[in-house]
Write a structure and sequence with these properties.
The structure holds two protein chains of two kinds. Chain A contains eight helices and no strands. Chain A is mainly alpha-helical. Chain A has a single domain, classed as MetI-like (MetI-like fold). In chain A, about 80% of the residues lie in helices and about 0% in strands. Chain B is mostly helical. Chain B contains eight helices and no strands. Classes of the chains: A mainly alpha, B mainly alpha. Chains A and B meet through helix 2, helix 3, helix 6 and helix 8 of A and helix 2, helix 3, helix 6, helix 7 and helix 8 of B.
């Protein structure tokens, strides 16, 4: 069924390197998204009308535009508009950070407004200052709600990174295609084995992270 | 931006739009059917079946649609299973969506406290009555935000269909950019049609969520 092709020569190493290329893009985007997302999420809770309108539009754009379309706009459109040549990798990081920041900001905002007013009032009654309230009372609660959700976002970003193949980045699917092409004569039905392997590779990466998120969520319930 | 070019491209994009919408909603319908079946299998802990369902849900929730489509469309033919691109798109979206829907519906069902079905039982309701009048309405309200998010997510996922040579919106845009270099016009139409496809659903989603929230909390 073409599974033996994967273990021939350096094929498995090449597949893993392809996965690594995709992972690199997603991890850079995740890091950027988390930092910017937390900042934006906190801005959104300030209830300033101007900020609200702008962030609402931003979130709605991200909510309804497929990441693939955003990728096309940046990769093809930016070059056309400015004449500058953005590499596929940079375009991908820009798009995934743009998307991830919005998702992260929404999670942060959701967690912050889910803290009941009584927590602030009780802290004030106990004589805690605003900064003390924030650091000792609010942040620990937010972290417990936010962490499982943001870990979940990471798996979503890893899965979405598979799209970069469509703008020509050599990642695991592309490597898979190359392996199939190269072995066309000796293993005509390698496609099954190779794509099954890619399938399982993604599962092997995302499943444990998803489990961690579920575990933390259960552990910190209440 | 050239209006003439847009006029010329409009029919091509309309055709692609219809195809994308068709496969998208067929896939979503399939996802709902699969999701409901799987959710009940998990909720009632049917032996053997629930193990299979759990395996399926975990597998499809933790892999990208693009990889799933490649496996179905390019992988399966080499062991003799060949299906058309349209069927593959529908099936792929349905399988992916089914796993997400199953989780949303199951968590809704499980979020209804056990005391609800116990109380219904002590009031003399049959199992079916308890489900129909007590459990289902509450579970539905809890599931709605998740289900709406899934529908939007699945409609957005239709953008990867071009990878299996379906003549969808992405494919048309990429094709026209490659042929004529009318990048701006093609991208404009691409965005326009995706807005057309998703904005109404997004609005409807918020409306339904508001209604459901009112039903639950009264505010």
């Amino acid at each position: 069924m073409g599974i033996e092709v994967i273990f021939k020569g350096k094929n498995l190493v090449r597949l893993l390197a392809g996965l690594g290329a995709a992972m690199k893009i997603s991890l850079i985007s995740v890091a950027i998204s988390i930092v910017l997302g937390i900042a934006l999420g906190m801005l959104m809770t300030l209830k300033k009308p101007v900020i609200n309108v702008i962030t609402r539009i931003y979130l709605e754009i991200v909510r309804i535009m497929p990441q693939m379309v955003l990728l096309f706009i940046v990769f093809f459109g930016f070059t056309k508009l400015t004449g500058l040549n953005l590499s596929a990798e940079v375009s991908a990081v820009i798009v995934f950070s743009f998307w991830g920041t919005a998702e992260m900001a929404d999670l942060v905002r959701g967690c912050m407004i889910s803290i009941p007013a009584i927590q602030y009032e009780s802290s004030a009654a106990l004589g805690l200052g605003r900064l003390q309230t924030f650091i000792y009372v609010i942040v620990p609660q937010i972290v417990r709600r936010l962490l499982p959700l943001s870990i979940n976002l990471i798996t979503r970003m890893i899965k979405t990174t598979s799209l970069v193949m469509m703008i020509g980045i050599v990642e695991v699917l592309k490597v898979g295609q190359q392996i199939i092409e190269a072995n066309r004569k000796t293993a005509p039905n390698a496609a099954f084995g190779v794509f099954a392997a890619v399938f399982l590779l993604y599962f092997a990466v995302c499943w444990p992270i998803g489990r961690l998120s579920k575990y933390l969520e259960k552990k910190w319930e209440n | 931006m050239d209006i003439e070019v847009i006029k010329r491209y409009l029919p091509l994009f309309s055709k692609a739009f219809l195809l994308t919408v068709k496969i998208g909603w067929l896939g979503i319908a399939l996802a709902f059917v699969l999701g409901i079946l799987c959710a009940f299998t998990l909720y009632y802990k049917l032996p053997v079946l629930s193990t299979i369902v759990r395996f399926y849900v975990e597998l499809f929730r933790n892999t990208p649609l693009l990889v799933q489509l490649f496996f179905i469309y390019y992988g399966l033919p080499s062991i003799g299973i060949r299906i058309s691109a349209q069927l593959c798109g529908t099936l792929g979206l349905g399988l992916l969506g089914g796993s997400y829907m199953a989780e949303s519906i199951r968590s809704g069902l499980e979020a209804v406290p056990a005391i609800q079905s116990e109380s219904a039982k002590s009031l003399g309701m049959t199992k079916w009555q308890a489900f129909r009048y007590i459990i289902a309405p509450q579970a539905f309200n809890i599931s709605v935000p998740g289900l709406m998010a899934n529908v939007i997510f699945l409609l957005k996922e239709t953008s990867v269909f071009s990878a299996i040579s379906l003549m969808d919106l992405m494919f048309t845009a990429k094709d026209l950019i490659g042929l004529h270099y009318n990048t701006t016009e093609s991208l404009f139409l691409l965005v326009l049609f995706y807005v057309l496809m998703l904005l109404p659903v997004s609005f409807a989603g918020s409306l339904i969520e508001k209604k459901v929230r009112f039903g639950m909390y009264g505010d």
